[in-house]
Design goal:
By secondary structure, the protein is α/β, with parallel strands linked by helices. The chain has seven helices and nine strands; from the N terminus they run βαβββαββαβαβααβα. The protein has a single domain, classed as P-loop containing nucleotide triphosphate hydrolases (Rossmann fold), CATH 3.40.50. Helix content is 42%, strand content 21%. The chain is globular, with a radius of gyration of 16 Å. It binds guanosine-5'-monophosphate.
Length: 187
């Protein structure tokens, strides 16, 4: 069976990666599989362990680092996030196109290890719009929000490291553009 393609979907916090990803997963011809990350962040309301993330404590996360169990991992605001590598490998072997929805430090690590990965960076239409979206989430304290906004500005500066940059004007438009990029690269 033909090995699947590794797809990195990155972009600043709050740009809408999760929503665009959900839209992409409705397109069955893309043959996508999602890599569920491990994180030390506490679940938000509605988030399910083993679906949205594997929610673990710092000791468990550190243990996984010791075992060399991550394809990449990074600290984001005050939590750790990482991609368990065995599962990704298994899904690629099964011919699935595996989506990593990750922040920029992790994305840069994967680019080094897997240069053939299809890398896509989602940007907001403007910084004002990004701020509106981050504030709209209302699940974080003001200080955390300020930190995420400052971080987003730094993250956007890394966009030229990606093979494709897509503007998230609307979920449909961004998902359709990304789907076309994927279709051009998987066959
Ligand atoms: P959130 O706390 O909003 O779910 O995620 C914070 C940031 O971490 C987002 O940009 C998200 O894409 C990113 N992220 C989620 N999982 C991983 C991962 O496994 N590795 C890395 N490097 N970033 C991740």
């Amino acid at each position: 069976m033909k090995r699947g393609t590794l797809i990195i979907l990155s972009g600043p916090s709050g740009v809408g990666k999760g929503t665009v990803r959900e839209q992409l997963f409705k397109m069955n011809d893309l043959n996508l599989a999602y890599s569920i990350s491990m994180t030390t962040r506490k679940p938000r309301p509605g988030e399910v362990n083993g679906v949205d993330y594997y929610f673990v404590d710092q000791a468990t996360f550190n243990q996984k680092i010791q075992e060399d169990g991550f394809l990449e991992y990074a600290q984001f605001v005050s939590n750790s996030y990482g991609t368990p590598k065995d599962k990704v490998e298994e899904m690629l072997e099964e011919g699935k196109n595996v989506v990593l929805e990750i922040e920029v430090q992790g994305a840069l690590q994967v680019m080094e290890k897997v240069p053939e990965a299809l890398t896509i960076f989602l940007v907001p239409p403007s910084m004002e719009e990004l701020e509106r979206r981050i504030r709209g989430r209302k699940t974080e304290a003001e200080s955390v929000m300020q930190e995420r906004l400052a971080k987003a500005e730094r993250e956007i500066k890394t966009k030229d490291s990606y093979k494709h940059v897509v503007v998230n004007n609307t979920v449909e438009q961004a998902a359709n553009e990304i789907a076309d990029i994927i279709r051009h690269n998987i066959n």
